[in-house]
Each structure stands twice: as C-alpha cells, then as structure tokens.
Input
Amino acid sequence: MKSSIRLTIDILAAVLYIGAANPLITGLAVHEWLGFGLIFVFVIHCAVNYDWIITTLRRRTKDANMAHLVLDALTLIMFMTVTVSGLFVSRHILPLFGWVASGYYFWNPLHAISAKLLLALLLIHVVVHARWFVRLFARRRGTDDRDDGK
Output
C-alpha cells in the first residue's frame, strides 16, 4: 500500500514538474503556480520517504543507499534554490501578496542555472531509483512480492 502512495506522489510530482519546467508552453503564470504547488508535493514526498531517510542515516554505511541520500540532499538544495530564486523573480505570486523583490539580475540567472541543474539531478534521481520502479511494477504483475521501500 505504501508503495502505491509513493508512486502516486511521484507521478504527481513528475506531471507538475514537467508543466513547471516548460514556461514557454504553459505561460508564466501557470509556470509559477505549478512551481509553487511543487513545494507541497515535495514536502509530501519527503514525508512519505521519511522512514527510508532515517534508516539510511542511522546505518551510516557507505552503500548505495547513502549515495542515494547524498543525491537526494543535493536535489533538495537545488530544489530550494530554484524555489527561492523563482519567488524572487515572480511576476504573479509575489505581487499577489503585495511584495516586490529587488535584485532581478542576480535572482533570474540563479533561477535559470539552478533549474537546469535541478533537471539534471532529477534525471539522475529517477535513474538511480529505477530499480524501485521496476520492482513495484513487477509486484503489480505478481512476479515479485518484496516491499523494501525504495
């Protein structure tokens, strides 16, 4: 059951990210709101995977899970950089609250660069966790009955 929840959250995150990562297709307002919505989906994703994070940290081993955790931490840092810089260059969300940020020429390039780095990290994240997806779909077909988280 937990695997189904994880998969649903991952699919939702992927769909929102694909929309948010294409502002020329969605338009700037939709881009900003999808990006803002991703904050909540990302928090839920972390909460659902909290047990895996804690288990990996407690083991303190140099196995593949620790490498995955480091990748996930880098992805978190980049996600936060994209989010903060995106809010500071926002033309729809920030003004809605009556705020205007200065430093556009700092925040806009940072947003563009960090967005590209985030895309690279997310692609690596999906590839690294591909084994979990394969096991999940194999289980659905009835060929594998393990449920070991990620």
Residues 66 and 85 are 28 Å apart (CA to CA). The chain is about 80% helix and 0% strand. Residues 2-141 form one domain. The first helix runs from residue 2 to 20.
